[in-house]
Specification:
single chain; 338 residues; alpha/beta; TIM Barrel; eight-stranded parallel β-barrel; 12 helices; 9 strands
Amino acid sequence: MKENIKNLEKIKFSVLDLVPVAEGSTPQQSIQKSLELAQHAENLGFERFWISEHHNMESLVSSATPILIGHIAQGTKRIRVGSGGIMLPNHAPLIVAEQFGTLETLYPGRIDLGLGRAPGTDQLTAQALRRNRSETVHDFPNDITELQGYFSNENRNAAVRAIPGEGLNIPLYLLGSSTFSAQLAGSRGLPYAFASHFAPTHLHDALRLYHQNFEPSKQCNSPYSIACVNVIAAETDEKARHLETSLQQLALGIIRNTRKPLPPPVDSMDGLWHEMEKVQIQKMMYYSFVGSKETIEKELSAFLEATQVNEIMVVSHIYDHRDRLKSYEILSSLLREK
């Protein structure tokens, strides 16, 4: 047990929230629950609370990400709040600079800007978001450069300026589920967050390439890596595995493209999924840590030993809000023992 705690000593824990809609709940209730979760996480000592951009999904209401970030920041006091992430190809860099410049002006020293290059939705919706713009391999790096330019003091004499935003110290994070953003984050000297909670395949390759390609920058002197994982903690392993069936049903809807609000847990997934679907979901959710405090501690410590990441970001798809809050309480008990 002491060895496990030692492995967790240097690690920060944070929260990724997709603002899920549980079956029987409304979007308004879901947003309120996200605020309550952020306040809970702040009281428990978590480092940051990120919201991810998704569109056209009945199960998630995180489409207007900057507005939700402002709502969470207003309702909390200390915890860092940001995007995990803003899907930059969906937006003009100037708009992002203005929005996050405004957030940083309202809540100084608390705003993070995580950036991704996926659409955060289906292709048809992506076309509606991006209109006539088609993305090339060069667009994402160029958009980051443009965004950094708007935040710089050197842009004060430019014809186009981000006001507010110019000269503000808003940390950027690159997000990814493959190796492309890992190499880019390294070469730009930016922190890197990997989406291992749903795309575990390239985690180790991405972290290796990030470290190999890292060049110090104004923001970071050394590499800083974050891994996002699923955590469902409960009083017993049996109860946690029961709660996990909500996540498994949600994943089943993703692969069948029948996405619905987060369903309540079931006694067994048998009869709900086929064997190949079961294998696919288990592979997708490989980095899911489900169980009691002792189980979570042991498995997370092994994960940290294998990855050497600086921070763990936790997402918890749990149907009952009280069970979700309790899961973070159990996880936070590992923080208090450090």
